[in-house]
Amino acid sequence: MNKITIAIDGFSSTGKSTVAKQLAKHLGYIYVDSGAMYRAVTWFAMQNNFIDESHFHTQALTSKLSSIAISFKFNPELGFSEVYLNGINVEKDIRTLEVSSFVSQVAKVSEVRKQLVKQQHELGKNKGIVMDGRDIGTVVFPDAELKIFMTASAETRANRRYQELLSKGEDVSFKDVLHNVQERDFIDSNRKDSPLKKADDAIEIDNSNLSLDEQFNKILQLVETKLKENN
Ligand code: DC
Fold this sequence. Notes:
Elements: E1 5-10, H1 16-27, E2 30-33, H2 34-47, H3 58-63, E3 70-75, E4 80-85, E5 88-89, H4 97-107, H5 110-123, E6 129-133, H6 136-140, E7 146-151, H7 154-167, H8 174-190, E8 203-206, H9 212-229
Parallel strand pairs: 1-6, 1-7, 2-6, 7-8
Antiparallel strand pairs: 3-4, 4-5
The structure holds 2'-deoxycytidine-5'-monophosphate.
């Protein structure tokens, strides 16, 4: 059976990665969390003091881009691939609210995007991939056979992210998480290079009132229709 490319885009914390992982597992496809790549570059920038609350030395970061190697390694215990930065597992480090507060600034930089899109093309060159992000259906894989655009209200999304951070032991307030979600929505949708927007041929799914099972089954049906069309 011919493999297809599945692009899942949407605002932060819409549950893109949850459904993308489920789909990849079900189909035996590769799953790539492109947001993790932007987060890993952000973590690198933080570690090198290129970014903090008061400054962002864009050039210092772009001059070091060639020394950043991002890779994914499947962790059988967790059932998904973890992200590595220059050979070091940074999966936990990149998920904090602090990284979230800087990542949209880093993702605005065209040189960063160019570098990461190149790697994303390489990862998807044989199809059989589910990639989630902000520009996957519009820029990275404009010819993807299936494009999904996920939405949910900002409050619903902030609440999901808040529960997730609390469960990981982070000391955060709901107000700060909501602020971060709204701020990232704004920056991600209004940046010049590859802003977050629904591709014309993407199917929009608002999952505010869908359970994980309902969401998965709905998207799986769309996948099955596309797979039939493609064979
Ligand atoms: O999916 P996420 O919340 O982990 O993504 C983190 C940030 O990375 C998000 O706020 C915007 C950026 N991003 C992007 O610009 N393009 C992508 N394809 C994926 C993420």
